[in-house]
From TrEMBL:
Pfam families per the UniProt record, alphabetical: Trns_repr_metal (PF02583)
Molecular function in Gene Ontology: DNA binding; metal ion binding
Entry-linked InterPro entries: Metal_Tscrpt_repr, Metal_Tscrpt_repr_sf
CDD domains according to UniProt: RcnR-FrmR-like_DUF156 (cd10153)
GO biological process, one term: negative regulation of DNA-templated transcription
Gene3D superfamilies registered for this protein in UniProt: Metal-sensitive repressor, helix protomer (1.20.58.1000)
Stated family: Belongs to the FrmR/RcnR family.
Protein name in UniProt: Transcriptional regulator
Length: 92
């Protein structure tokens, strides 16, 4: 079983929230809301997509590269922890 299947419900819930945010952007454009309002909605959407990406990447690192919590090689565990932190920071 892949890690995305193991977290399927959680990931689908995130995607559904993102879908709602996309629909909110569409409604805002249809209603001809001001640029600032639309940009705020787009910023929220971007943050949600980045959060989903970071979660999938972190799970991938933990399941297919190295899990910093269980890897017996301290250097490898440290490298995995650092990579996860970089991904989280980059996609913030």
């Amino acid at each position: 079983m892949t890690h995305t299947i193991g977290n399927k419900n959680k990931l689908i819930a995130r995607v559904r929230r993102i879908k709602g945010q996309v629909e909110a952007v569409e409604r805002a454009l249809e209603a001809e809301l001001g640029c600032a309002d639309v940009l705020m909605l787009v910023a929220s959407l971007r943050g949600a997509v980045h959060g989903l990406s970071a979660e999938v990447m972190e799970d991938h690192i933990r399941n297919h590269v190295a899990d910093p919590d269980t890897d017996k090689d301290p250097e490898r565990a440290k490298g995995a922890a650092e990579l996860i932190e970089v991904v989280r920071t980059y996609l913030k």
